[in-house]
């Protein structure tokens, strides 16, 4: 394990995000890093991979920069790079929560909870745990009993919460996400909306919780979805309960693939066998797409593809 993957964010004021992004990209390239970084007037959010030496140099550079005093890095060991390219992009917001009114986490945010505090509080009767990630992230792993807003994309979550306010009435609401950044604003939004009695957030996110020597990732079921080539990583160091279900037949599954239709790209859980049976399409329409990536990648003959499609049509088993 000579490589590391860093995950971090920091709210600060960046005067000229476009300028900063161009300079930061050069600095990252000089350090042979790969990954994805978002820069906005409100701060930085990134995940990069590199050798131990290079990632150490990067962390030193950031910690020595007056803009990033107090920045926290979550560190995973790795066998190699977890990204193909190095990208640094200026954006209007660090995370797109699509809130009607922006929340400044320096002004309003949920109570910060350490992993151990979170673990203790989540087991109390008067507490509900709210997952503030996308549903495809929830589906492969989540805290036991956490609320999964029934929405297509995260953008619809605020409306769903308003419509289901009674779930939170009189309760302490605990939010969590991958590295903590989504909770900074979202827990602030919950407070500003008057949702629940009290709002807490898992400081440092699931990534920190999994490494805590006391919490050890307990009460987490399944794996955690990550936005790099690993796709999922283990969290619970004590027990492993599979919660993911195969998109096609509902059997236990933790293998994520993207729908082979390049215009769909839906994240689905599927065994290798079921993926093959459906030529990588999440539904028949996607299987039949003229630019189906699965067919291209596996160099399948037209005759074979036709035979599979007629079989699928006949069985009407396709979801
Ligand atoms: Zn699809």
Topology of this protein?
Blueprint lengths: L2 E9 L5 H14 L3 E7 L2 E9 H12 L8 E7 L7 E5 L20 E3 L1 H8 L4 E5 L3 H6 E3 L13 H7 L8 E5 L4 H13 L4 E5 L2 H5 L10 E6 L6 E3 L21 E3 L8 E3 L2 H6 L6 H4 L5 H5 L4 H14 L4
Parallel strand pairs: 2-5, 6-10, 7-9, 9-10
Antiparallel strand pairs: 1-3, 1-4, 2-3, 8-11, 11-12, 13-14
The site of zinc ion (ZN) has 8 residues, from loops.
The CATH class of the largest domain is: Alpha Beta
Overall number of strands: 14
Nearest-angstrom radius of gyration? 21 Å
Largest sheet: 5 strands, mixed
CATH topology of the largest domain: Oxidized Rhodanese, domain 1
What do we call the CATH homologous superfamily of the largest domain? Rhodanese-like domain
Mean pLDDT: 95
Q: Counting H and I runs of at least 4 residues, what is the number of helices?
A: 11
- Percent helix, as a range, is 25-40%
* Terminal Cα span: 41 Å
Spell out the helices and strands N to C: EHEEHEEEHEHEHEHEHEEEEHHHH
- Unreliable runs: none
Cofactors, ions and other ligands in the entry: zinc ion
How many domains in all? 3
**Strands of the biggest beta sheet: in what spatial order?**
4-1-3-2-5
- The CATH architecture classification of the largest domain is 3-Layer(aba) Sandwich
Decide which structural class fits the backbone: alpha/beta
EC number: 1.14.-.-
Function: Catalyzes oxygen-dependent 5-hydroxyuridine (ho5U) modification at position 34 in tRNAs.
InterPro entries: Rhodanese-like_dom, Rhodanese-like_dom_sf, Rhodanese_C, TrhO, TRHO_N
Organism: Ureibacillus sinduriensis BLB-1 = JCM 15800
């Amino acid at each position: 394990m000579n490589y590391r993957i860093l995950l971090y964010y920091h709210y600060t004021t960046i005067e000229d995000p476009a300028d900063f992004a161009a300079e930061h990209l050069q600095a990252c390239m000089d350090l042979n890093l790969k990954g994805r970084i978002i820069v906005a007037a409100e701060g930085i959010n990134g995940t990069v991979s590199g050798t131990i030496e290079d990632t150490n140099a990067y962390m030193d550079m950031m910690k020595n920069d007056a803009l990033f005093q107090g920045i926290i890095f979550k560190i995973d060991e790795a066998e190699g790079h977890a990204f193909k390219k190095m990208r640094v992009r200026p954006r209007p917001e660090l995370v797109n929560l699509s809130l009607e009114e922006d929340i400044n986490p320096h002004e309003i945010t949920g109570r910060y909870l350490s992993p151990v505090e979170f673990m203790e509080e989540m087991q109390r009767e008067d507490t509900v745990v709210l997952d503030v990630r996308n549903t495809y992230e929830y589906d492969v792993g989540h805290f036991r009993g956490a609320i999964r807003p029934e929405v297509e994309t995260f953008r619809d979550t605020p409306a769903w919460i308003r419509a289901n306010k009674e779930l939170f009435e009189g309760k302490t609401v605990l939010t969590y996400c991958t590295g903590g950044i989504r909770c900074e604003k979202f827990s602030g939004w919950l407070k500003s909306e008057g949702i629940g009695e009290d709002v807490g957030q898992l400081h440092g996110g699931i990534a920190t919780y999994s490494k805590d020597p006391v919490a050890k990732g307990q009460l987490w079921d399944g794996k955690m979805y990550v936005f790099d080539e690993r796709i999922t990583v283990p969290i619970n160091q004590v027990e492993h309960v599979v919660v993911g279900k195969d998109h096609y037949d509902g059997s236990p599954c933790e293998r994520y693939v993207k729908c082979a239709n390049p215009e769909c790209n839906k994240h689905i859980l599927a065994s290798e066998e079921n993926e093959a049976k459906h030529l990588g399409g999440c539904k028949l329409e996607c299987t039949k797409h003229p630019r189906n990536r699965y067919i291209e990648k596996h160099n399948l003959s037209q005759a074979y593809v036709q035979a599979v499609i007629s079989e699928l049509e006949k069985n009407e088993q396709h979801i």
